[in-house]
Amino acid sequence: MPDTAPSLSLSLHPSIADIPALDWDACAGLTNPFVSHAFLLALEESGSVGARTGWLPQHAALRDESGQLLACAAMYAKTHSQGEYVFDHGWADAFERAGGRYYPKLQVAAPFSPVPGPRLLVREGSGIGVEALAQGLVQACGQLDLSSIHVTFCEAREWEALGEAGWLQRIGTQFHWTNAGYASFDDFLAALASRKRKQIKRERRDAEASGFVCKTLRGHEITPRHWEAFHRFYVSTSDKKWGRSAYLKKSFWPLLGERLGDKVVLMVAEQDGEPVAGALNLLGQDALYGRNWGCLVDAPFLHFELCYYRAIDFAIEHKLPRVEAGAQGEHKIQRGYLPVPTYSAHWIEHRGLRRAVADFLAQERPAMMREIEALGEMSPFRKEGEG
Protein backbone atom coordinates (compact mmCIF):
# COMPACT_ATOMS: atom_id res chain seq x y z
CA MET A 1 0.00 0.00 0.00
CA PRO A 2 1.03 3.72 -0.27
CA ASP A 3 4.37 4.52 1.32
CA THR A 4 2.81 7.59 2.93
CA ALA A 5 0.31 5.37 4.77
CA PRO A 6 2.12 2.12 5.62
CA SER A 7 -0.53 1.06 8.14
CA LEU A 8 -3.20 0.74 5.44
CA SER A 9 -3.95 -2.48 3.59
CA LEU A 10 -5.96 -3.06 0.42
CA SER A 11 -7.97 -6.21 -0.27
CA LEU A 12 -10.09 -7.20 -3.27
CA HIS A 13 -13.38 -9.05 -2.78
CA PRO A 14 -15.28 -11.24 -5.28
CA SER A 15 -18.63 -10.25 -3.76
CA ILE A 16 -20.06 -7.16 -2.12
CA ALA A 17 -21.51 -9.54 0.48
CA ASP A 18 -17.95 -10.01 1.82
CA ILE A 19 -18.07 -6.43 3.12
CA PRO A 20 -20.64 -5.59 5.84
CA ALA A 21 -23.36 -3.26 4.54
CA LEU A 22 -22.99 -0.84 7.46
CA ASP A 23 -19.27 -0.47 6.83
CA TRP A 24 -19.70 -0.04 3.07
CA ASP A 25 -22.49 2.53 3.40
CA ALA A 26 -20.51 4.45 6.03
CA CYS A 27 -18.04 5.11 3.21
CA ALA A 28 -20.57 5.45 0.38
CA GLY A 29 -22.86 7.90 2.19
CA LEU A 30 -26.54 8.39 1.52
CA THR A 31 -26.49 10.77 -1.44
CA ASN A 32 -26.31 8.38 -4.40
CA PRO A 33 -28.19 5.03 -4.38
CA PHE A 34 -26.09 3.57 -7.21
CA VAL A 35 -23.08 3.06 -4.93
CA SER A 36 -25.11 1.73 -2.02
CA HIS A 37 -24.50 -1.79 -0.75
CA ALA A 38 -28.16 -2.69 -1.45
CA PHE A 39 -27.99 -1.72 -5.14
CA LEU A 40 -24.70 -3.52 -5.75
CA LEU A 41 -25.88 -6.63 -3.89
CA ALA A 42 -29.09 -6.78 -5.97
CA LEU A 43 -26.94 -6.78 -9.13
CA GLU A 44 -24.88 -9.70 -7.85
CA GLU A 45 -27.69 -11.79 -6.37
CA SER A 46 -29.71 -11.49 -9.58
CA GLY A 47 -26.74 -12.60 -11.70
CA SER A 48 -26.74 -9.31 -13.59
CA VAL A 49 -23.04 -8.96 -12.81
CA GLY A 50 -20.64 -11.88 -12.62
CA ALA A 51 -18.46 -14.07 -14.80
CA ARG A 52 -21.29 -14.79 -17.27
CA THR A 53 -21.81 -11.12 -18.07
CA GLY A 54 -18.14 -10.18 -18.08
CA TRP A 55 -18.43 -8.03 -14.95
CA LEU A 56 -16.45 -9.94 -12.34
CA PRO A 57 -16.63 -8.20 -8.92
CA GLN A 58 -13.27 -7.17 -7.47
CA HIS A 59 -14.48 -4.70 -4.88
CA ALA A 60 -11.66 -2.77 -3.24
CA ALA A 61 -11.52 -2.32 0.54
CA LEU A 62 -8.93 -0.15 2.25
CA ARG A 63 -8.52 -0.82 5.98
CA ASP A 64 -6.37 0.46 8.79
CA GLU A 65 -4.28 -1.80 11.01
CA SER A 66 -7.25 -2.39 13.34
CA GLY A 67 -9.33 -3.69 10.41
CA GLN A 68 -11.68 -0.72 10.17
CA LEU A 69 -12.88 0.01 6.65
CA LEU A 70 -11.69 3.50 5.71
CA ALA A 71 -12.44 3.50 1.98
CA CYS A 72 -13.85 1.25 -0.72
CA ALA A 73 -14.78 1.14 -4.39
CA ALA A 74 -17.20 -0.90 -6.48
CA MET A 75 -14.77 -2.41 -8.97
CA TYR A 76 -15.01 -5.09 -11.65
CA ALA A 77 -12.58 -7.05 -13.79
CA LYS A 78 -14.00 -6.74 -17.29
CA THR A 79 -13.46 -8.78 -20.42
CA HIS A 80 -15.16 -6.24 -22.71
CA SER A 81 -16.20 -2.57 -22.76
CA GLN A 82 -19.97 -2.97 -22.93
CA GLY A 83 -22.44 -1.41 -20.50
CA GLU A 84 -20.10 1.44 -19.51
CA TYR A 85 -21.24 4.49 -21.56
CA VAL A 86 -17.69 5.88 -21.64
CA PHE A 87 -16.32 4.30 -24.77
CA ASP A 88 -12.76 2.97 -24.94
CA HIS A 89 -13.27 0.43 -27.73
CA GLY A 90 -10.87 2.38 -29.96
CA TRP A 91 -8.14 2.27 -27.33
CA ALA A 92 -8.61 -1.48 -26.93
CA ASP A 93 -8.58 -2.13 -30.69
CA ALA A 94 -5.42 -0.08 -31.25
CA PHE A 95 -3.56 -1.73 -28.38
CA GLU A 96 -4.50 -5.26 -29.41
CA ARG A 97 -3.60 -4.60 -33.07
CA ALA A 98 -0.18 -3.54 -31.79
CA GLY A 99 0.16 -6.88 -29.98
CA GLY A 100 -0.97 -5.78 -26.51
CA ARG A 101 -3.61 -7.31 -24.24
CA TYR A 102 -6.23 -4.75 -23.19
CA TYR A 103 -8.64 -7.15 -21.49
CA PRO A 104 -9.21 -7.88 -18.72
CA LYS A 105 -9.21 -4.38 -17.28
CA LEU A 106 -10.48 -2.91 -14.01
CA GLN A 107 -13.65 -0.80 -14.02
CA VAL A 108 -14.66 1.35 -11.05
CA ALA A 109 -18.31 2.05 -11.79
CA ALA A 110 -21.96 1.57 -11.00
CA PRO A 111 -22.65 -1.19 -13.56
CA PHE A 112 -24.94 -0.35 -16.49
CA SER A 113 -25.66 3.05 -14.88
CA PRO A 114 -24.35 6.23 -16.52
CA VAL A 115 -25.07 8.13 -13.31
CA PRO A 116 -22.50 10.61 -11.98
CA GLY A 117 -21.61 10.12 -8.35
CA PRO A 118 -18.84 9.21 -5.92
CA ARG A 119 -16.65 6.31 -6.98
CA LEU A 120 -13.72 6.29 -4.54
CA LEU A 121 -15.72 6.05 -1.34
CA VAL A 122 -13.94 7.41 1.72
CA ARG A 123 -15.37 7.27 5.23
CA GLU A 124 -15.93 10.74 6.65
CA GLY A 125 -13.42 11.53 9.36
CA SER A 126 -11.03 8.78 8.23
CA GLY A 127 -8.18 11.23 7.76
CA ILE A 128 -7.35 9.98 4.26
CA GLY A 129 -8.24 11.24 0.79
CA VAL A 130 -9.19 9.53 -2.43
CA GLU A 131 -5.50 9.54 -3.40
CA ALA A 132 -4.71 6.78 -0.89
CA LEU A 133 -7.30 4.45 -2.38
CA ALA A 134 -6.30 5.42 -5.93
CA GLN A 135 -2.66 4.55 -5.25
CA GLY A 136 -3.68 1.19 -3.86
CA LEU A 137 -5.72 0.48 -7.01
CA VAL A 138 -2.75 1.31 -9.21
CA GLN A 139 -0.55 -1.09 -7.25
CA ALA A 140 -3.23 -3.81 -7.52
CA CYS A 141 -3.48 -3.26 -11.28
CA GLY A 142 0.26 -3.76 -11.65
CA GLN A 143 0.38 -6.82 -9.41
CA LEU A 144 -2.51 -8.42 -11.31
CA ASP A 145 -0.79 -7.61 -14.63
CA LEU A 146 -3.86 -5.86 -16.01
CA SER A 147 -3.83 -3.15 -18.65
CA SER A 148 -5.73 -0.35 -16.99
CA ILE A 149 -8.20 1.06 -14.46
CA HIS A 150 -11.17 3.20 -15.46
CA VAL A 151 -13.11 5.31 -12.97
CA THR A 152 -16.22 6.38 -14.85
CA PHE A 153 -18.87 9.00 -14.04
CA CYS A 154 -16.95 10.14 -10.98
CA GLU A 155 -17.43 13.43 -9.17
CA ALA A 156 -15.50 16.52 -10.26
CA ARG A 157 -13.50 16.57 -7.01
CA GLU A 158 -12.39 12.95 -7.59
CA TRP A 159 -11.54 13.73 -11.21
CA GLU A 160 -9.36 16.63 -10.15
CA ALA A 161 -7.61 14.61 -7.44
CA LEU A 162 -6.95 11.72 -9.83
CA GLY A 163 -5.64 14.12 -12.46
CA GLU A 164 -3.19 15.53 -9.92
CA ALA A 165 -2.12 11.94 -9.16
CA GLY A 166 -1.26 11.36 -12.83
CA TRP A 167 -4.42 9.69 -14.10
CA LEU A 168 -5.71 10.61 -17.56
CA GLN A 169 -8.80 12.82 -17.52
CA ARG A 170 -11.80 12.59 -19.80
CA ILE A 171 -14.97 14.68 -20.15
CA GLY A 172 -18.39 13.66 -21.46
CA THR A 173 -21.85 15.24 -21.65
CA GLN A 174 -25.23 14.61 -20.07
CA PHE A 175 -28.47 16.55 -19.79
CA HIS A 176 -29.87 17.48 -16.38
CA TRP A 177 -32.91 19.47 -15.29
CA THR A 178 -32.36 22.00 -12.50
CA ASN A 179 -35.09 23.07 -10.09
CA ALA A 180 -35.06 26.86 -9.77
CA GLY A 181 -37.46 26.74 -6.84
CA TYR A 182 -40.53 26.03 -9.00
CA ALA A 183 -43.83 25.70 -7.16
CA SER A 184 -45.50 23.73 -9.97
CA PHE A 185 -44.97 22.42 -13.50
CA ASP A 186 -46.74 25.52 -14.80
CA ASP A 187 -44.22 27.61 -12.88
CA PHE A 188 -41.44 25.79 -14.75
CA LEU A 189 -43.23 26.31 -18.07
CA ALA A 190 -43.45 30.03 -17.38
CA ALA A 191 -39.65 30.18 -17.41
CA LEU A 192 -39.54 28.89 -21.01
CA ALA A 193 -39.74 30.79 -24.26
CA SER A 194 -43.30 30.93 -25.56
CA ARG A 195 -42.78 28.50 -28.45
CA LYS A 196 -41.12 25.90 -26.23
CA ARG A 197 -43.81 26.30 -23.59
CA LYS A 198 -46.54 25.62 -26.15
CA GLN A 199 -44.65 22.61 -27.51
CA ILE A 200 -44.42 20.92 -24.11
CA LYS A 201 -48.07 21.64 -23.33
CA ARG A 202 -49.06 20.07 -26.64
CA GLU A 203 -46.88 17.00 -26.03
CA ARG A 204 -48.37 16.43 -22.59
CA ARG A 205 -51.87 16.96 -23.95
CA ASP A 206 -51.31 14.52 -26.82
CA ALA A 207 -49.87 11.89 -24.46
CA GLU A 208 -52.93 12.20 -22.23
CA ALA A 209 -55.27 12.05 -25.21
CA SER A 210 -53.83 8.67 -26.23
CA GLY A 211 -55.99 7.11 -23.54
CA PHE A 212 -53.27 5.76 -21.26
CA VAL A 213 -53.52 6.03 -17.51
CA CYS A 214 -50.17 7.27 -16.21
CA LYS A 215 -49.14 6.68 -12.62
CA THR A 216 -46.16 7.41 -10.41
CA LEU A 217 -45.48 4.48 -8.06
CA ARG A 218 -43.03 4.15 -5.17
CA GLY A 219 -41.75 1.31 -3.04
CA HIS A 220 -44.54 -1.04 -1.96
CA GLU A 221 -46.90 0.44 -4.58
CA ILE A 222 -44.85 -1.37 -7.22
CA THR A 223 -46.24 -4.91 -7.35
CA PRO A 224 -44.82 -8.13 -8.86
CA ARG A 225 -47.00 -7.63 -11.94
CA HIS A 226 -45.40 -4.23 -12.50
CA TRP A 227 -41.92 -5.75 -12.32
CA GLU A 228 -42.96 -8.61 -14.61
CA ALA A 229 -44.21 -6.09 -17.16
CA PHE A 230 -41.22 -3.78 -16.75
CA HIS A 231 -38.78 -6.57 -17.51
CA ARG A 232 -40.64 -7.18 -20.77
CA PHE A 233 -40.34 -3.46 -21.59
CA TYR A 234 -36.64 -3.49 -20.76
CA VAL A 235 -35.85 -6.57 -22.85
CA SER A 236 -37.89 -5.31 -25.80
CA THR A 237 -36.10 -1.96 -25.77
CA SER A 238 -32.67 -3.58 -25.37
CA ASP A 239 -33.31 -5.93 -28.29
CA LYS A 240 -34.47 -3.09 -30.54
CA LYS A 241 -31.68 -0.69 -29.60
CA TRP A 242 -28.66 -2.98 -29.33
CA GLY A 243 -29.80 -6.25 -30.88
CA ARG A 244 -28.46 -8.35 -28.03
CA SER A 245 -29.57 -9.80 -24.73
CA ALA A 246 -30.14 -7.37 -21.88
CA TYR A 247 -27.76 -7.49 -18.91
CA LEU A 248 -30.21 -6.88 -16.09
CA LYS A 249 -31.92 -10.13 -15.17
CA LYS A 250 -35.60 -10.62 -14.45
CA SER A 251 -35.00 -11.12 -10.72
CA PHE A 252 -33.08 -7.85 -10.42
CA TRP A 253 -36.16 -5.61 -10.45
CA PRO A 254 -38.06 -7.10 -7.48
CA LEU A 255 -34.77 -7.35 -5.57
CA LEU A 256 -34.18 -3.68 -6.26
CA GLY A 257 -37.67 -2.81 -5.04
CA GLU A 258 -37.25 -4.91 -1.93
CA ARG A 259 -33.82 -3.54 -1.01
CA LEU A 260 -34.26 0.13 -1.87
CA GLY A 261 -37.92 0.59 -0.97
CA ASP A 262 -39.22 4.12 -1.50
CA LYS A 263 -36.03 5.09 -3.30
CA VAL A 264 -37.45 3.25 -6.31
CA VAL A 265 -39.82 5.41 -8.37
CA LEU A 266 -41.63 3.88 -11.35
CA MET A 267 -43.56 5.98 -13.85
CA VAL A 268 -45.94 3.59 -15.59
CA ALA A 269 -48.58 3.84 -18.32
CA GLU A 270 -51.51 1.42 -18.28
CA GLN A 271 -53.96 0.49 -21.01
CA ASP A 272 -57.13 -1.34 -19.98
CA GLY A 273 -55.56 -1.89 -16.58
CA GLU A 274 -52.37 -3.49 -17.96
CA PRO A 275 -48.91 -1.84 -17.86
CA VAL A 276 -47.66 -1.10 -21.36
CA ALA A 277 -44.77 1.33 -20.75
CA GLY A 278 -42.58 2.39 -17.85
CA ALA A 279 -39.67 4.57 -16.76
CA LEU A 280 -37.59 3.50 -13.77
CA ASN A 281 -35.98 6.09 -11.50
CA LEU A 282 -33.97 5.95 -8.29
CA LEU A 283 -34.25 8.67 -5.68
CA GLY A 284 -31.16 10.17 -4.09
CA GLN A 285 -30.87 12.84 -1.44
CA ASP A 286 -30.71 15.69 -3.94
CA ALA A 287 -31.72 14.22 -7.30
CA LEU A 288 -34.08 11.91 -9.11
CA TYR A 289 -32.07 9.63 -11.40
CA GLY A 290 -33.81 8.43 -14.55
CA ARG A 291 -32.46 5.00 -15.39
CA ASN A 292 -34.40 2.56 -17.62
CA TRP A 293 -37.25 3.00 -20.07
CA GLY A 294 -39.25 0.52 -22.09
CA CYS A 295 -42.59 0.07 -23.81
CA LEU A 296 -44.75 -2.34 -25.78
CA VAL A 297 -46.74 0.34 -27.62
CA ASP A 298 -45.99 3.18 -30.02
CA ALA A 299 -47.77 6.28 -28.75
CA PRO A 300 -47.03 9.96 -29.43
CA PHE A 301 -44.93 11.60 -26.71
CA LEU A 302 -45.50 8.83 -24.13
CA HIS A 303 -41.72 8.50 -23.72
CA PHE A 304 -41.38 12.23 -22.98
CA GLU A 305 -44.29 12.15 -20.54
CA LEU A 306 -43.01 9.22 -18.48
CA CYS A 307 -39.27 9.89 -18.64
CA TYR A 308 -39.03 13.68 -18.52
CA TYR A 309 -42.22 15.49 -17.57
CA ARG A 310 -43.40 13.25 -14.76
CA ALA A 311 -39.83 13.26 -13.41
CA ILE A 312 -39.98 17.06 -13.30
CA ASP A 313 -43.39 16.86 -11.59
CA PHE A 314 -41.90 14.54 -8.97
CA ALA A 315 -38.84 16.74 -8.40
CA ILE A 316 -40.96 19.85 -7.94
CA GLU A 317 -43.35 18.10 -5.55
CA HIS A 318 -40.48 16.72 -3.44
CA LYS A 319 -38.34 19.87 -3.73
CA LEU A 320 -35.43 18.02 -5.33
CA PRO A 321 -32.68 20.21 -6.80
CA ARG A 322 -32.39 18.30 -10.08
CA VAL A 323 -33.35 15.43 -12.36
CA GLU A 324 -30.60 13.48 -14.12
CA ALA A 325 -32.03 11.83 -17.21
CA GLY A 326 -29.20 9.45 -18.13
CA ALA A 327 -26.97 9.20 -21.16
CA GLN A 328 -27.29 10.81 -24.59
CA GLY A 329 -30.22 12.67 -26.06
CA GLU A 330 -29.93 16.24 -27.36
CA HIS A 331 -33.73 16.18 -27.66
CA LYS A 332 -33.80 16.59 -23.87
CA ILE A 333 -32.58 20.18 -24.19
CA GLN A 334 -35.90 21.42 -25.57
CA ARG A 335 -37.62 19.85 -22.58
CA GLY A 336 -35.58 21.78 -20.03
CA TYR A 337 -32.67 19.37 -19.54
CA LEU A 338 -29.45 21.31 -20.15
CA PRO A 339 -25.95 19.99 -20.96
CA VAL A 340 -23.46 19.43 -18.14
CA PRO A 341 -20.01 17.82 -18.16
CA THR A 342 -19.42 14.33 -16.83
CA TYR A 343 -16.04 13.04 -15.73
CA SER A 344 -13.93 9.90 -15.91
CA ALA A 345 -10.32 9.12 -15.05
CA HIS A 346 -8.09 6.41 -16.51
CA TRP A 347 -4.87 4.74 -15.42
CA ILE A 348 -3.05 2.93 -18.24
CA GLU A 349 -0.03 0.79 -17.43
CA HIS A 350 1.61 0.58 -20.87
CA ARG A 351 3.63 3.74 -21.53
CA GLY A 352 3.08 3.81 -25.27
CA LEU A 353 -0.69 3.38 -25.02
CA ARG A 354 -0.79 5.84 -22.16
CA ARG A 355 1.01 8.46 -24.25
CA ALA A 356 -1.31 7.92 -27.24
CA VAL A 357 -4.47 8.15 -25.11
CA ALA A 358 -3.14 11.24 -23.32
CA ASP A 359 -2.62 12.95 -26.70
CA PHE A 360 -6.12 12.00 -27.79
CA LEU A 361 -7.71 13.28 -24.57
CA ALA A 362 -5.75 16.54 -24.75
CA GLN A 363 -7.64 17.24 -27.98
CA GLU A 364 -10.96 15.73 -26.94
CA ARG A 365 -11.40 17.68 -23.67
CA PRO A 366 -11.49 21.20 -25.15
CA ALA A 367 -13.64 19.93 -28.02
CA MET A 368 -16.15 18.51 -25.50
CA MET A 369 -16.25 21.78 -23.57
CA ARG A 370 -16.91 23.69 -26.80
CA GLU A 371 -19.70 21.24 -27.63
CA ILE A 372 -21.29 21.67 -24.19
CA GLU A 373 -21.15 25.45 -24.62
CA ALA A 374 -22.73 25.22 -28.08
CA LEU A 375 -25.48 22.90 -26.84
CA GLY A 376 -26.18 25.32 -24.02
CA GLU A 377 -27.06 27.96 -26.62
CA MET A 378 -30.02 25.76 -27.59
CA SER A 379 -31.61 26.31 -24.17
CA PRO A 380 -35.43 26.61 -24.25
CA PHE A 381 -35.48 29.04 -21.34
CA ARG A 382 -36.76 32.53 -21.95
CA LYS A 383 -34.11 35.15 -22.59
CA GLU A 384 -34.43 38.70 -21.43
CA GLY A 385 -37.09 40.49 -23.44
CA GLU A 386 -38.73 37.28 -24.74
CA GLY A 387 -42.30 36.30 -24.07
Task: Name the features.
387 residues, alpha+beta, 11-stranded mixed beta sheet, 4-stranded antiparallel beta sheet, 11 helices, 15 strands, globular
H/E series, N to C?
Answer: EHHEEEEHEEHEHEHHEHHEEEHEEH
How would the global form be characterised?
A: globular
Largest sheet: 11 strands, mixed
Query: What is the alpha-carbon Rg in Å?
Result: 22 Å
Q: β content, as a range?
A: 15-25%
Question: In angstroms, what separates the terminal alpha carbons?
Answer: 61 Å
Q: Indicate the percent of residues in helices.
A: 25-40%
Structural class call reads alpha+beta
Individual helix count: 11
Q: What is the count of β-strands?
A: 15
- Low-pLDDT stretches: none
Report on the architecture of this protein.
Helix content is 36%, strand content 25%. It is of the alpha+beta class. Strand 13 (287-295), helix 10 (302-317) and strand 14 (322-327) form a beta-alpha-beta unit. Helix 2 runs antiparallel to helix 9 (252-260) and helix 7 packs across helix 10 (302-317). The longest helix has 26 residues, at 351-376. It is globular and about 60 Å long. The protein starts with 8 loop residues before the first strand and ends in an 11-residue tail after the last helix. The mean pLDDT is 94.
